Amino acid sequence: MKVYQSIGEFIPLAHAVSTIGTFDGVHAGHEKIISRLCEMAAQEKGESVVLTFFPHPRMVLQPDDNELKLLTTMSERIELLKKSGVQHLIIQPFNREFSRQRAVEFVRDILVNKIGTKTLVIGYDHHFGRNREGSFKDLEEMSPIYGFRLEEIPKQVINELAVSSTKIRNSLLTGDVRTANDLLGHEFSLTGTVVDGDKIGRTLGFPTANMSIAEPYKLIPATGIYAVHVKVGETLFKGMLYIGYRPVVHGKRLSIEVNIFDFEQNIYNHPITVFLKARVRDDIHLSSLEALKKKMNEDKLVATKLLA
User: What are the start-end ranges of the E strands in the chain?
Assistant: First the structure.
């Protein structure tokens, strides 16, 4: 997959099969769009193109809204789209000037002239252009004028829930990882750099890798213990992840740390990724470090069964 950091880097194609969207999470609904995109590109002997945006439009248009957290960082989004078989990914910087384009200008100047779109695959109820004025009905009217075919992908429903990034975010914020993963179509992940901690876990027989996550906009799930797979380099290990404020030692800041089972390597300053499988329990206050150690032994048994 070729990645372009703006539309200006892209050379128009003779036959582009395109789609547009933020694609946060690259969830099961997005995968349906992308699968159809790649299928049509192959049928039409064209090339598949995804046009996405960063920062997220809400971050630019509603800068005071600090509640928006994203399911994926841009690097995570790139990796997920790469696995989906997309040939070209354009990451267009989103700013207020770009947001002021009228719908017809966006279609004519960006999709048709700068990308070379001959077929446009669009998700259910997609809106675009200034003040989200453009709709599927507008695209139907513009397609014969600008010479592109149009296909809309219907709303995807999994376990009787319509798939949306908002529903996935809400599931994670309540600790319902199973539902979130079902809607995503893959396991939610966190990537961070291993940093020094106070090494309390080591004294309890459960050394942990403390994770520092650089992107402040990345969504962090509800506090608690999670059964996870941990990617170190190219190897996957089993483990359990803690997200919380460490009430036993009266912690003040949110801590994200993972105990990797059967692991003794020194990985300080190395990046690791944890893939959340299921939630083991809430973060609870325990009376002592000894009580915490006993509880962690129980947690490990539960996590091991969940990961089996």
Answer: 2-4, 16-20, 47-54, 88-93, 117-123, 149-153, 157-158, 161-162, 189-195, 209-212, 224-232, 235-244, 255-260, 271-281
